[in-house]
Amino acid sequence: MSNLVTVRVARPRAKFGLILLGSIAGLIGTGAASAQDVPSVTVKYSEQNLATDAGANELYHRIVRAAKQACPEASIRDLKAVREVEACRNQAIARAVNKIDNSRLAAAYATHSKNS
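and the corresponding C-alpha cells:
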C-alpha cells in the first residue's frame, strides 16, 4: 500500500514562495494566496518505508528535498528572504513529519533538526 504526504508551505510563507516564483501580480490582484496557490510537493511512501530506521531516514531526506522544492532559494544578498526560506522549509518538514505520525520518522527528524 502506498501513502502520500504533501509538503506544503504555510499560508504566510506561500505568499513569499509565490513572489519568488514571479506571481506578484496574482497576489496583488487577489490580496492573498488561495489554498490551490500554495506551493506543495507530494512525497509517496509506504508503511514498509517506516518499518526500519534506514527507511524512515530515507523518507525524511525525501521530505527535506520536497521542502526545498516547495520553498525555493532566495538571493543570498537578501538575508531576510534567506531566513524566511529557511523557516518555510523547517515548517514544511515539521508539518509533513507530524502528519505521518511515525516514531521512527520523528526520531530521524529530531536527530537531523538537532544537528542543523
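(Above: one complete record from the training split.) The CA atoms of residues 90 and 113 lie 9 Å apart.
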